[in-house]
Amino acid sequence: MAIWFRHLLTDGLALRRPQLKELPFVLVMPVKNRIVITASSRLAEQQGAFTGMAAADARAAVPELVAIDDTPGKAAKLLRLLGLWCLRYTPIVAIDLPNGLILDISGCAHLWTDERGYLKEIVLKLRNAGFDARAAIADTPGAAWAVSRFAKISPIVAIGKQSQAIASLPPAALRLEPEILERLQKLGFRTIGPLLSMPAPTLRRRFGTTLLTRLDQALGKINEVLTPIVPPVPYVERLPCLEPVRTKVAIEIAIENLLSALCLRLQAEGKGLRKAILKCIRIDGRTVQASITTNRGSHSVSHLFKLFELQVAKIEPALGIELFVLEAAKVEDMETVQEQIWALDRGLADTALAELLDRVAGKVGAEAIQRYLPAEHYWPERSVKIAVSLTEEPQTAWPEQMRPIRLLNNPEAIEVMALVPDNPPKTFIYKGKRHSIIKADGPERIGREWWRDGGEHRDYFVVEDSEGQRYWVFRSGHYDGGDARWYLHGYFA
Prior knowledge:
Layout: E1 2-5, H1 8-16, E2 25-31, E3 34-40, H2 42-46, H3 55-61, E4 66-69, H4 74-86, E5 92-96, E6 100-104, H5 115-128, E7 133-136, H6 141-150, H7 162-166, H8 178-186, H9 193-196, H10 200-207, H11 209-219, E8 236-245, H12 248-268, E9 271-282, E10 287-298, H13 301-309, E11 321-333, H14 351-364, E12 372-374, E13 384-386, E14 406-417, E15 427-430, E16 433-446, E17 458-465, E18 470-476, E19 485-491
Helix pairs in contact: 6-11, 10-11, 12-13, 13-14
């Protein structure tokens, strides 16, 4: 689908400044020592002020004309905003400067009954918003672009009928450069029809490859690549509503229908959902969102629906929701598990455990639940990492030596007194409190990572004070080196 905004810049300005709607106004910009009109409103065009005219000539024809300075780049920004709005109708929207959008509507039109209802829905919404929009649907972007701007027939081109649709249109419908259009005009080509019957070598010799490329793009012989403003999500489902939805029950029914369609696709491709985003587009133009995450891939409709049930209360329908969009923001491959007769202890591979964690995360937040794996580092504070999923396997083994229950992120300096320099401390002072040591075990030497950074080795001791508290302390460097220092690194109890 190609959408043409005939008065893009002036319509956008009139929306921001409503007092301009009843006035003939234009946007102007200096060009080669002249003030030239770059965009004109519909009312200004009706009175004789057109794009490309000198502002002085336009004022002579329209004395009450209002001229406003144009800003470069405004069209691209406005088209991007309109393109983001169109994402509710299709996941692929591309900007077509200076005044249009191209939509890839493959597999989307049936949600609005047919292509005619789909086109009518979009165009009426844009016109009600204040934009003078016109659109057309064809098999190719080139044919849709031509019909939307130059055709006076039906805006929907039948499948495979591109050549008939563009044959009666002027050569400008092929998006050609002014030099080529001028040459075609001089040679008497008033429509595209005669060009379709001419041999390709003749056209290439007279007009270059651009004309042939544009013809082939319009006819579908060459694919035209679109650059979407937002990279499309591979797995997405849409559900338009005949009437605005406002109740909790209706929202839950919509979510269940979307999940059923999405999970069917995921299951067929051996994928599992890790993160989903539900976008609810209201009739006032606003979008409210709700998202869920899972600890492992899932395509269970019942489980995912329970997670969304916890989020329904956060959705504010206001005057009503007219469109639901469910995106699978993150998926992962799933292995098909064979059913077993005898129940086994599956540990982290148990689906019930993953579903339980998902429900808990939906209530307390996913960041409150973390799983840790050993990391290949010597220093204890670097020897653990957060797992990205329940199925991630450790790359190394956990240390066999005893480690404290609570490990400080950064070791904290302590003052120590030892009877013999190489022995464990007899007392240490931490945060102003003196601890008398009655038991000690060690040392356990952990060398420094010479390839990563500098630093001495560490000699760790497990010590117990007179109050029964156990600590993990270490001496950095050799005791006879003169610069050895003691640190507290963790608590056992």
